[in-house]
Amino acid sequence: MLEKIKSHINQSLQSLKNENIIHLSSYLSHGKMLRSKLILAIAPNHPKVLELCAIIEMIQSASLLHDDVIDEATSRRGEASINAVFGNKNAIMLGDVFYSQAFYELLSFDIKIARSVAKCVVRLSSGEIDDVMMSNAFQSDERLYWRMISDKTASLIATSSECAAILEGLDFEKYKNYGENLGIAFQIVDDILDVFGDEKKLGKPAMSDFKEGKSTLPYLLLYEKLNNQDKQKLKSFFRQDGIEAREWILARMNENNIFDLAQKIARDYGQKALKAISKEKNEHLESIVNEMIFRQY
Amino acid sequence: MLEKIKSHINQSLQSLKNENIIHLSSYLSHGKMLRSKLILAIAPNHPKVLELCAIIEMIQSASLLHDDVIDEATSRRGEASINAVFGNKNAIMLGDVFYSQAFYELLSFDIKIARSVAKCVVRLSSGEIDDVMMSNAFQSDERLYWRMISDKTASLIATSSECAAILEGLDFEKYKNYGENLGIAFQIVDDILDVFGDEKKLGKPAMSDFKEGKSTLPYLLLYEKLNNQDKQKLKSFFRQDGIEAREWILARMNENNIFDLAQKIARDYGQKALKAISKEKNEHLESIVNEMIFRQY
Question: CB distance from B191 to chain A under 8 Å?
């Protein structure tokens, strides 16, 4: 099924009849296609479901292409990133081609679907701007963190679920709610793994968020627990790298049970996702929450 | 009228309720708004005309924001560029906000208008990719030049005219045709001025296109006229800077009457633009062609 989605994306790009675009995009990898999996779990047999998946994956690819330029990333999903191979210029413009071709194809769908996706891309990009603006100094305001992860991570997961439900004629608010909560839980788990590591992946955790200027939930929870002197010390380690910072932060995280606190919050959001669709009897969607949020790590 | 369009754009951005976006976009300048002038000349009294202008200007701003990152430009319209003040990250993402908010607002228009604009953004971005790909070596294939300037410059001018005509219930193919030809003529004039300078602006011409890796029409016409040895010499100056290159190129351009040849082609496109709307009796559109293409330079 995921292969069929890739072939839809290729067809869409071939229709542009521009050999440079076809060449550049042949270097893209498509990852696990979580958003397509959600769509397929909600509207598995709808005649336009693969087309919707292809559009959402193109939006996701566009957003990653621009992210990689922003983060000066040299790899993506184990392959060299487009910006690393063909330069920032081509990566930005290929992202723009993907966004605009996706918008063009959305116009053959229910207008509610087109509106949801367009609004979502506004949120994706706003979330990125917030992320950049917040990276100058440690940001202890939790409200900004919630807005940022909701915009940056949850919005496209929420939109994917919502649009699939609109396609299928289901109660789309429930599915949007499911996706929003799943997306937030997913981001928190990601933020936890950055600090505490993942059992599945041996070796030390990366602890890269804080040194890259991201004030994620574990750091916000820790900051609340610390006395004034340690609050200042934590702040002084923001955007710093070094063994002293890593060890001090990890010791304070462990003393203050930040893992448990953060995990509980992630699971609360996971529960909210499950509750939103509790009457929909969709085992596939339920198992996605269980595998992503309630797994061991 | 142009002030009212700016206020429409501001309202649209205010509706996003994100203080970072409002702050960043307060640094944007909007230039001469050629595209809005065309729209206003075609559908002056339509109740949605200012909204359409605001959307098209947001698309144009998004495209310039991404261009400036690509060109590492430090200024735009006499002001410091967003990328120079706030970094590439914010400039890319603000462009994405503008594109996606514009697409969102387009959904309240006739679907033909939304399709035309979405397709146009695909063309704008494809044209940029072609431009980047063509900048590695001198490109003597005229077909690639025509495709590139049609995509990069003419497409949004064509779409602006077409969409205004759709709004007004006019024969939109004629207006699209007008805009496409005007856009191509406008780009050729720009390419001529880069080599030969503009009477209005004293001082030496910039001659920056060739050294920046752009094979524009005057260079393509010159290449055709040169013998094999001089063809190689011209190619050897591609992406080079220096007094010898400038003087040699300008002498060959003058010997071969490239100014007249290129100007004739620009004017032929200007005539095509006028012919496309000859029965529409729109003096305003006619005078725009005369002022932009048939002026003294």
Answer: no
pLDDT at B199: 67
- What are the tens digits of pLDDT across the range B66-122? 988 877 777 777 777 788 788 888 899 999 999 999 999 999 999 999 999 999 999
Domain shared by A198 and A274, yes or no: yes
Domain end point (choices A109, A135, A155): A109
| Residue positions counted in chain B | 297
Q: Are residues A5 and A89 in the same domain?
A: yes
DSSP secondary structure letter of residue A271? H
Per DSSP, the residues of B245-286 read: HHHHHHHHHHHTTHHHHHHHHHHHHHHHHHHHTTTT--HHHH
Q: Do B96 and A20 touch (CB under 8 A)?
A: no
Q: Which of B56, B90, B109 is the last residue before a domain boundary?
A: B109
Domain housing B175: 110-297
Distance from the Cα of A2 to chain B's closest Cα (Å) equals: 25
User: A222-267: per-residue pLDDT in tens?
Assistant: 999 999 999 999 999 999 888 899 999 999 999 999 999 999 999 9
Q: What is the mean pLDDT of chain B?
A: 92
CA distance B222 to B236: 14
Same domain, B115 and B59: no
| Tokens linked to B250 | 């300008």
- Is residue A112 within 8 Å of residue A164, measured between CB atoms? no
